[in-house]
Amino acid sequence: MNSQDAVMRTSPFALRTLDFRLTLALACLSMLIGQLLLGSPVSGQQAAPPEAKPQYETLPIADAYRAPSLEGIDAKAQRDLYLETNKQRRKIEADRRETERRISDTLRGRQSSASANEIDQFFNGYVIPAMTQTDDETLEDLGRTRADFFRNYLNSTPPSALRNQVIDNLTFPKMRQIVEGNFHPAVRINAMFIIGRLNAVEGRRGDNGQLPRPYEPALNYMLQAWSNAELPNYLKVPILAGLERHASMRGLKTDNVMATGPRRQLADEMINVLALQPNQEMPAELVYWMQRRAVRILGNLGDPGEAGRYAQQLRDLISNENLDFQIRVDAVDAYAKLDFSADVALAAIQEVIPKIADVVIRSAQYNAQYIDEKISEIRMTAMFLDGEDVSKGGVRESTASPGLGRGASAEAPGSSQGSAQQKDEVIEILPAYHRELVRRRFKDVAWAGRIVLVGDDLRNPNKGLKALVDDQSDEAKFIEEIRTIIDNMMAATDVNEPGEDDLGDDEASSDEDEERPSLADRLKKALKDGSEALQAAVEKRASAATATQPTSESSGTEDTAGSSGQ
């Protein structure tokens, strides 16, 4: 990796601008599956002939639910056969829909006459086999079919006894069979997604709402499947998605506490994911996607680990400047969710706060650099297009109305109103959407750091690191200082139209001919000033900590003097 690649990989604005790697991960997965299906040649090999396509297993649909096909029947030459076949087809489809309705009502707790035996026959004869077919239409609709499956049969509140039996005796065993069998890759992926979404108790909205309780056997199976070397790598994606869902349910304010054994096993597996390196079977985009999920899982589990080893892993990620920057931000988010109530020392407050501040500093610096680079790029493009500097004919944003501006005045050049407006206009080279991008991107990182420090009622039930220390302690004062700077930075980046209402007295009374800073300049200044203030606070704290370290018998006197000085 050359230096330019390294900068782009670790740059916050390069990663937060499009965050397209999540999509690319699934695209890479689709490409791998496509190679399996089409027999795409590997380097140095010839393409396999069409007849060499792999043959996949399917579960047969029972005759009672299989509508006859009209394919091959000429509607004109074989009119009677076509009409009779179409009549049979419509009757079977109507009967199937009626059976589906009655079974859906039964499983969702509504009044219905569907029996357990009828449910068993319908699931084994149609519902599950229909998801294993390999025709293009079935494969294309697997996502919708999966959503319909949960909506029609399993999303019942309160759950019926038959609904639980459908999960225990039909859905879960059959999905395992599909995952482990020689079925189409898309079919196996769909089956694993279904396993990851199974709930023992469904969520409920309203005044008496509750979060869903994930299906415990599914967690144990996914942990087993994750380490099963016989399963193909493309199943890692749905397995990891399911594991993340289970962890996220445990990470919320519920009694969904994961047992110590599975929790530690899952955390250990995620630590291994963080050590993965891209290869031919796992492209860089897929590894990136997996590692981001791994960090989130570590946070949602809330476990600092034995002797704080999971917390230490997250601290290492936060401070690793060679790592993808968004993973560092995810590590900050995850660290905020760890529960240090059993042993505050595991939080390593003095160690982690400068690291968190550094992430915010890096984000501010990169976004300020992004503003300069975009302006230079726009100037250069304009010179190539019309041979003039963009400042001679750039976008003018008026002070006459609030907001980010709409461009030059619509008045005719030379008119009195237009001339008066031009006098107060500031040329904005950087378009509004770029400035908004910078603000949102920086605030996302800054807010993540703030939550670690002081918590957030909605996202962090642990109340932040400040809740772990005494309010009068040096650590609490340092946390409050960093939080204040971050809050000021977020407020300062909310640059508005440069009018007298948002300018200080000195600026408002200055010479009218003095050029006002553009919104981009003010945004960049807010980022730079804030990052410098953060850096100064961290360095000051480090110097104070070094000065107060006990080095001799006089250390006690020094500590006393330091306390009295405060």
For this entry, give a set of tags.
elongated; two-stranded antiparallel sheet; disordered N terminus; 566 residues; mainly alpha; two-stranded antiparallel ribbon
What can you tell me about this protein's structure?
There is one protein chain. With 566 residues, the chain is mainly α. The chain contains 22 helices and 4 strands. It has helices at 3-10, 12-16, 21-38, 79-107, 116-130, 136-140, 142-154, 161-180, 185-197, 216-226, 236-250, 260-273, 284-301, 309-319, 325-337, 349-386, 416-424, 432-454, 474-492, 505-508, 519-547, 555-565, and strands at 199-201, 213-214, 395-397, 426-428. The protein is elongated and about 90 Å long. Mean pLDDT is 79; it is low at 1-20, 38-45, 392-423, 498-510 and 552-566.
Order of helices and strands: HHHHHHHHHEEHHHHHHHEHEHHHHH
Radius of gyration: 31 Å
Number of DSSP helical runs: 22
Tell me how many strands there are.
4
Query: How much is the average pLDDT?
Result: 79
Coarse structural class: mainly alpha
Measured between the Cα atoms of the first and last residue, the distance is 49 Å
Stretches where pLDDT falls below 50 for ≥5 residues? 1-20, 38-45, 392-423, 498-510, 552-566
Q: Tell me roughly what share of residues is in helical segments.
A: 55-70%
Strand order of the largest sheet: 1-2
